[in-house]
Design goal:
- With 354 residues, this protein is of the alpha/beta class.
- It folds into 2 domains: 160 residues, 3-Layer(aba) Sandwich (Rossmann fold), CATH 3.40.50.2000; 176 residues, Rossmann fold, CATH 3.40.50.
- Helix content is 46%, strand content 14%.
């Protein structure tokens, strides 16, 4: 199972790895020493094999001319691993380790499955999709043609726990008032400066409107944990199931894992896509927003005025929030991990020579 670098690659890898381990398959993860997988994969009890980080050069430079050679070397290294460990299937999730794994699977005629987390695929998965007919996509508006819609493999424990939690109890555990409507704010593990700054500048208006805020600012934000009536701030939350269960609405970036987890838990959200990159975050949230399960706003437009004029009125309408929650739940794919696991089984039972 190849992938890593970011949570969008590592989290679905781990979700599928757990599913396959439960089916008595042996799982080996392939990643780099620099990515999140170097910490998360061993912590979940899986073997991690690392290769050199191979970022694709974006500008004309000596590194660009050296890239094909480095990719070939890494691919043959992975091919040796496939042969020596008698690998029966390669599953890739994108990221630095995936391109060599895809080429190695092609060279060794090993069944290959590619899973794309975002609506817009990157270089590695575009390459992988050309080398196999077993391509899985998270969103229906994916730019990978002929992909099977499996959804995003997410951690079962988050959805199960969030659904079973009593909302008032969850709020108490988060240090919140059990009776007040709750807004969850998160920008991911690194945080999001625009989201953090706008929420802090609007805090008095939110509290005055009767809305309490659970604010996960991210470890990189440099803000201390803090609480006062109507507001709880933490740099990191290791109980996202409780945070989701406590909340009526969320403000968040639109990473594929976040969009999928919120939808599966029926948590409506305002998505503020990360403004840097190729625009994949906006597309990640498009289907959900079109279904009525959330809202979307540009990063530059997420201001205190927007919160006062748009967000607070949304938060004040319980019936509309209930409709949004239902719509989010209906568009989610709760059995995404099982769907992807079935595609892996199908690939393993199909000869690559067909």
């Amino acid at each position: 199972m190849a992938g890593g670098g970011t949570g969008g690659h590592v989290n679905p890898l781990l979700a599928l790895a757990e599913e396959l381990r439960n089916q008595k398959h042996d799982v080996i993860a392939l990643g780099t020493k620099e990515g999140l997988e170097s910490r998360l994969v061993p912590n979940r009890g899986f073997e991690l094999v690392t290769i050199a980080k191979l970022p694709l050069p974006r500008k004309l430079s000596p590194k660009m001319f050296a890239y094909p050679f480095r990719l070939a070397v890494a691919s043959f290294e992975v091919a040796r691993l496939i042969r020596s460990r008698k690998i029966e299937c390669v599953v890739g999730f994108g990221g630095y380790a995936s391109a060599p794994a895809y080429l190695a699977a092609w060279v060794t005629r090993t069944p290959l499955v590619v899973h794309e987390a975002n609506a817009l695929a990157g270089f590695a998965n575009k390459l992988g999709a050309r080398l196999t007919k077993f391509v899985a996509v998270t969103f229906p508006n994916s730019n990978l043609r002929n992909g099977v819609l499996t959804g995003m493999p997410i951690r079962k424990e988050i959805v199960t726990s969030a659904e079973s939690y009593d909302k008032q109890q969850a709020r108490v555990e988060m240090g919140l008032d059990p009776m007040l409507p709750t807004l969850l704010v998160t920008g991911g593990s690194l945080g999001a400066k625009t989201i953090n700054d706008t929420i802090l500048a609007s805090l008095d208006h939110l509290i005055a409107a009767g809305v309490q805020v659970l604010h996960i600012v991210g470890e990189a934000a440099g803000l201390d944990d803090y609480s006062k009536p109507g507001y709880v701030r933490m740099s990191y939350c290791n109980a996202m199931d409780v945070a989701i269960a406590a909340s009526d609405f969320a403000v968040s970036r639109a990473g594929s894992s976040t969009v999928s987890e919120f939808a599966a838990c029926g948590l409506p959200a305002l998505y503020v896509p990360y403004p840097v990159g190729n625009g994949e975050q906006r597309l990640n949230a498009t289907s959900l927003v079109q279904s009525g399960g959330g809202l979307i706003v540009d990063n530059a437009s997420f201001t205190p005025a927007f919160i006062l004029q748009t967000l607070i009125p949304v938060l004040s309408k319980k019936s509309d929030l209930a409709k949004m929650s239902k719509a989010a739940k209906e568009i989610s794919i709760a059995n995404a991990t099982e769907r992807l696991g079935n595609l892996v089984s199908k690939a393993m039972n199909t000869s690559t020579r067909d």
